[in-house]
Each structure stands twice: as structure tokens, then as C-alpha cells.
Amino acid sequence: MDRRTFNTALVSAAATSIAGCATSGPGGSGGRAVFYQCVGDRITHWDVDADNAALTRNASVTVPSNVQYVWPHPSRKYLYVSSSDAASGNAPNPGKVHRLSALRIDASGALAMHGEPAALPQRPIHHSVDARGAYALTCYNSPSNLTVHRINNDGTVGAQVQQTSKIDVGIFAHQVLTTPANRSAILVTRGNRPEAKKAEDPGALKIYNYRDGQLSPLANLPVGGKGGLGYGPRHLDFHPTQPWAYVCVESQNQIHMHLLQGDSLTAEPAYNKSTTVGNYDIHFPQSAGAIHVHPNGRTVYVSNRASATVDFSGKRVFRGGENNIAVFSINPSTGEPTLIQNADPQSFHIRTFSIDPGGKIMVAASIMDMSVRDGNNVRYVPAALTVFRIGDDGKLSFVRKYDVELGGKFQWWTGFVGLAA
Prior knowledge:
The protein is mainly β.
């Protein structure tokens, strides 16, 4: 894909973006943005004051089960929410209520259900909407799977599109999205780490031709030269103006940069960097998480997560590891990411974070509360929304935290959305 074609494609692709959600474009540049927070089956709307790095809580709505992921329509008039009552990861509870719902966004950012939710075959882990706003693509982790649903002209969720080609969906799919030109789609399959009684499952980037909701095989990228072993990718994000894709490699705590090549990616990354301060064995429960390129294209961010516990005086306390946002400057000529900061959110297990459309602030969301050893005592740290101000150099400055009462649920997704004019 040449530079002119890529930049033209980005004009279309940017309309689909939810700033700091999966693709980084403007998410409604020049207008007002709101922030949505999901805890369990509840989605709460917050008003945003980016200049003062502040959020104001508003009303909430509920969906049929616990929110897994969220994505806006290019018009920014509708929000698509995947939900499930299943347990996360490879847990044995498959659940029964798996849905893809459309919600209408009014001029204030308030949400309301829009049409009937579509039943999904199993627990969804991620979904996205293509650049035309014509189809929603949903992936599932256990077992790995992928479906496509039409989006009706009125924004409601339509029928599932039956695929005419057989595609390889890998092991433990974790993200699916179309490329900027909307001619191909990428399924990020994480695989699984080795366990005491189970060998490692390989990871890969599965790339498909994409047209009118139909997928067909294009490329399989088991990065690293070992058939996907030692490679556990989670999510990727595209640079807003250059043909560069940045991949968060969860199991190895790395960030990779691939070049877009035609409708595919280069088979191996041009750059491979660590996201953490320390080095961790594959068996230590340290993982990279979300990844988002700043709207100005000068910085890319990755969350580092740790939440395992050990016993201390009869209580479960934090075992150790890193919980931070890794900040990488991007070389404007080569796309090389260089680590310049690991910013502390003062909370644990940042599964999701988001950048406002103007690029001024970031909100990082922890999915759980935690007890921490403090000398001979134990200190409780609640789940939170952590607000950072973003400097001209891309570095993060802590501003404030909003503690979150989880009530036994997870704070699974949060994000900024630019409102329609």
C-alpha cells in the first residue's frame, strides 16, 4: 500500500474510530466527547472536561449481560456492545446469555437500547465495525471463532452473514478489526501460555480478504520463526497517517511494529521492544494489555498488568509485578517505538485505557480492587478510573483518581467517544 492510498484510506477509517479503543483516529475531532464506563452489565456516561482533566458522572443503562467490548458506528449516532454472562479466559463456565446490542447516542451522550440485541453463539471477547459502518465483526476466545453481522440502515443489528469460505481462526482470538483500506481484516490470536500439564498453544495474526461482510484467507503470520510458539499477541493499532501497525504481545510483554504491505502486514516486525521495566519469565503472571496510538501519531501506549496474589497473615495480597502505562515515542521517519516512560496509575490490572479525541488526557481503568502488603499491615486499593494529562512529548502526568465500587463485577471496558455534530 503506497502512502497516498494509505492516507486516503485513513480518512474513511478514522470515522469508525473510538479514540483509545482499538483504532486511534479522531473519534469525532473538533466536537464534544463523552466517556463511557462499563462495570458488569452497566454502562455509565460521564461528561468530559479535557482542559481540567476531569470527569462528571451521569446516567447509566444496562445491557443483557456483562459488557465485554464496545465500538461506535462511523456516524457516532450508535454504540455497539457485546456482552456475556460467561466467565473470562479459559474458565469452564460457558454462560448462556451472549448478545450484540445496538445503543442509540443522543446529543448529550446519553444512551438507550436501539432495536433487539442479536444472539451470539458464545462469549465474545472483542468486536469492531468496518469503515463503512455496514458490518460488525465479533471474535470469541474459547473456542476461537469469528462471526459477522449486518448493520441495518437504521443502525440496528441485522442478521449474521453466513461465510462462504472456510477460514483459520487460530487459538484464543482476542481482537478483530478491518485494516484502514477496509479490504482486509486481521484476527489477533493469542494462543495460550504453557502450563504444568499443558503445552503452549501458538499465537498468530490471521489476515483475511474482506468484502461485503465476507472473509477469505489471505495470510497467516505466526511471528517469530517457531510456528507461533513464544508469541502471544493480544491487540494491535494503526498509525493515523503512516503504513505502520503496532502489536501488543501480551505473553512476552513486548510491542512490535509491522509495515502494512498491500492489504497484509510484513511477516515479521521491523521493531520489537519490551514494555516493562523488569524482565519476567513466561511463567510469571505479568502481561501486556491494551495498545493505542496517540491521535497525533507521535506516541504509542501499552498497559502492563499484574494481579496475582499470595497469602499474607491469612489474607490474599498482591504478589508483585508491574502495573503501569508504557509510553513509547515514535520515530517519525521509521516508526520505531522507543520507551520513554512507565507511568503509575496507582491501581491494579489496567485492562482498558482511552485517549480523548483532542489528545489532551488519558483515562486508565483497573478491572479489580486489590489488597497490598504495607510493612506488617495490609492496605486496600479500590478499583479506579485514573486520569492522566498528556504532555506535548506524549508523557503522562497523574492528575486524579475516581474510585470505583465494583460490587463483585469487573470494570471490563471504558472509552471516549466523540459525539456527532
